[in-house]
Amino acid sequence: MNRSLRNKSLNGYEHDLELELDGAVEVRPAAMAAGGALLVVAVILTALNLRPAITSIGPVLGEMRESLGASAVWAGALTTLPGLCFAAAGLAAPWLARRIGLGRAISIALVILSVGLVIRVLDGPYVVIGGTLVATAGIALVNVLIPVVIKGSFPAQIGVMTGIYTAALQGGGALGSAITPLLEPLLGGWRGALGAWALVAVGCQAFLAYIVMGWLPEVFIDNGVSKTNAGLLLGLLSILAVPISLLVPPLAARQKNQSGWIVGLGVVGIIGMIGLLVDPGAAPLLWSVFVGVGMSVFSLALTVIALRARNAEDTARLSGMVQGFGYLLAGVGPFLFGLLHEVTGSWTAPWAMALVVYLVQMVAGALAGRNRYV
User: Fold this and answer.
1) What are the C-alpha distances in Å from 107 to residues 96, 115, 346?
2) pTM for the model
3) Of 215, 230, 205, nearest to 340 (Cα)?
4) Which domains does the chain have, with CATH numbers?
């Protein structure tokens, strides 16, 4: 007795899986479970490599500027251009996956990430920016394609898998910010500390996130927090999202509407943002906790992308469009943040701008969380 199961592949193309139930060919449940477990591990390992390339810069940004003789404008460009690169690469991700296959596209993206991490520590300020752009191009490709993997391979566990992926993503970000200051004296300066993250990558709400990851340690340092503690606070901020990302997306995915969850997390984040606006040095630990909880809304954003698309192919298109244009806007954020600080000489105006954007983001998220397909 033969039975043909017609599935959607991860690239959006149909293929037949023949099951010979009379004994000629048999797909065993244990083998299927093992394959699913390996895919889960692959998603986690991939996610762990996506944030350190960005979060590792913030704690050593001051040393980089001093060593390279770079200005605040250069620092703004270093934290801005990756967002623009994310936009371009994110829009190209669905096309690349269709041309060469999803698995190969993700593998190539990880190679690109590794190469960029090595390049950026080899020479002067422009090479640093160039290498960072290469690395973030690889990150952008994976960011867009992972929701497609989740939609195509785990259609019944979208919330759970998105939570696991986001938790690993935030965990990697926490490692990047917390460990980099500790690696700096051991590896001979910021070049060795940043270059070490290339070893991790071999084989294995954007606007606000990149402002926080790029500038928050510098803000804390300017307000009396030590460099090491500033890096640890950014790490704490990222790692707080791990348990939230594991718990909230599965719960939110069971409901028809995710707007309430998005607004709730947004309110917590706004409290932390107001604290950073009023007095960053008064309670840096508390502000970090609130902002970290608010930033965990990223996991819900990925969940909503998968839930609002009808199939894997539509997920790829929606993910590419949303993340592409989202990072295009996000790329402006860190540059404006640094520019406002340079012009005003304080952190008040930059955080005021971030607070306004946060409010806009919360409203947009509430609208996106409504129960409808796109």
Assistant:
1) 12, 13, 43
2) 0.54
3) 215
4) 2-368 (1.20.1250.20)
